[in-house]
């Protein structure tokens, strides 16, 4: 190993280099920030981040003109059908509340099917539920994550009580709860091992028909037609609205967009703090190395060679820091997932926004560290010392 090489210095100053690497590992705080922010919408991404498989039409009859528009829409439902979308189905609306890791109260929207046949038909045209998932009349299906979040057990009988709170157990299998609005009857909980927040119910006594699904199956042509149907309905009516996966995701991006300005603030604060702290630490180190760099110059090493050495040392320590940060994050998220899953909290994926945030923060730290280090070396001269 050559004395001028970056590894030679790191090897002979291992403890000091480790301290700097640990400091640089804190750029991964931005990754963790991205993970937490993405968690707000992660359950929605798992469900809706795919081409449209149905168009959901819902009606607000409480607004002026709602009933009149509903009648006009129902008189021309068949006119919206296309070559790829030939089916539609009446469904009820099911709204379920749950809590995210950050303490946000989220809503998951799904459907009440009028019969087992309707649920099977929905499964035929979509990929939401596995083929082996079965649901009976009077049952409410929930993913394990959602059931844990709310505090329900398989076989619980859910009774709607607006004053009960999320889950109030009043018997071995009886639950008074306001987490989901049930209109007609008690429903038996059926927990299914599915990723994300999923809920659906079958209630043959349900008599509200303000919701409808256009069904076409999968494929680009189907998705295009479903989106065209939704756009056509939305442009024609004010109280009759239609949504697809693509429309829902656009709305979601708009609604939570402000949260990513928070991530930008986190990046800025962490970058400034780390850049100042690491520069101060490295400055003290380089002050002790002024004779070393003065001798390099006396031996004929040019500015380019010294710049490469400064870059190499910094980048190697930075790489070690990033690896340490990644290992720490992996351990933290593994522990959190393992211990919080029973409470219905879970990290599903590696956040792309978290990775971008960490990279941006890392660059904002590296550039001033390398620049000021190189600037210091230019001041060192053997004739002075």
TrEMBL record:
<feature type="transmembrane region" description="Helical">
    <location>
        <begin position="18"/>
        <end position="37"/>
    </location>
</feature>
<feature type="domain" description="ABC3 transporter permease C-terminal">
    <location>
        <begin position="265"/>
        <end position="359"/>
    </location>
</feature>
<keyword id="KW-0472">Membrane</keyword>
<dbReference type="InterPro" id="IPR003838">
    <property type="entry name" value="ABC3_permease_C"/>
</dbReference>
<feature type="transmembrane region" description="Helical">
    <location>
        <begin position="348"/>
        <end position="372"/>
    </location>
</feature>
<feature type="transmembrane region" description="Helical">
    <location>
        <begin position="258"/>
        <end position="282"/>
    </location>
</feature>
<dbReference type="GO" id="GO:0005886">
    <property type="term" value="C:plasma membrane"/>
</dbReference>
<protein>
    <submittedName>
        <fullName>FtsX-like permease family protein</fullName>
    </submittedName>
</protein>
<keyword id="KW-0812">Transmembrane</keyword>
<keyword id="KW-1133">Transmembrane helix</keyword>
<dbReference type="Pfam" id="PF02687">
    <property type="entry name" value="FtsX"/>
</dbReference>
<keyword id="KW-1003">Cell membrane</keyword>
<feature type="transmembrane region" description="Helical">
    <location>
        <begin position="315"/>
        <end position="336"/>
    </location>
</feature>
């Amino acid at each position: 190993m050559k004395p001028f090489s970056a590894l030679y210095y790191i090897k002979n100053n291992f403890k000091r280099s480790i301290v700097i690497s640990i400091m640089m590992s804190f750029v991964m705080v931005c990754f963790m920030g991205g993970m937490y922010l993405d968690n707000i919408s992660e359950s929605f991404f798992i469900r809706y981040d795919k081409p449209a498989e149905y168009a959901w039409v819902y009606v607000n009859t409480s607004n002026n003109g709602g009933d009149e528009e509903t009648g006009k829409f129902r008189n021309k439902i068949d006119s919206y059908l296309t070559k790829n979308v030939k089916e539609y189905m009446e469904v009820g609306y099911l709204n379920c509340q749950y809590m995210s890791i950050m303490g946000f109260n989220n809503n998951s929207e799904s459907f009440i099917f009028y019969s087992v046949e309707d649920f099977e038909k929905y499964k035929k045209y979509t990929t939401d539920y596995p083929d082996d998932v079965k649901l009976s009349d009077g049952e409410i299906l929930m993913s394990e994550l959602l059931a844990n979040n709310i505090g329900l057990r398989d076989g619980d009988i859910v009774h709607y009580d607006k004053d009960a709170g999320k889950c109030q157990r009043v018997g071995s299998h009886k639950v008074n709860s306001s987490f989901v609005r049930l209109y007609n009857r008690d429903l038996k909980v059926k927990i299914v091992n599915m990723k994300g927040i999923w809920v659906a119910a079958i209630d043959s006594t349900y008599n509200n028909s303000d919701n409808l699904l256009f069904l076409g199956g999968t494929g680009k042509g189907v998705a295009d037609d479903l989106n065209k149907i939704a756009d056509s309905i939305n442009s024609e009516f004010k109280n009759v609205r239609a949504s697809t996966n693509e429309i829902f995701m656009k709305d979601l991006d708009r609604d939570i967009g402000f949260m990513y300005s928070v991530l930008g603030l986190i990046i800025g604060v962490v970058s400034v703090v780390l850049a100042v702290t690491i520069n101060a630490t490295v400055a003290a180190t380089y002050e002790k190395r002024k004779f070393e760099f003065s001798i390099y110059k006396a031996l004929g090493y040019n500015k380019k060679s010294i710049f490469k050495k400064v870059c190499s040392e910094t980048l190697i320590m930075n790489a070690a820091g990033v690896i340490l940060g990644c290992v720490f994050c992996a351990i933290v998220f593994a522990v959190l997932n393992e211990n919080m899953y029973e409470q219905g909290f879970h990290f599903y994926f590696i956040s792309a926004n978290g990775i971008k945030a960490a990279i941006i923060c890392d660059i904002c730290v590296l550039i001033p560290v390398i620049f000021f280090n190189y600037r210091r070396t230019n001041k060192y001269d053997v004739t002075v010392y």
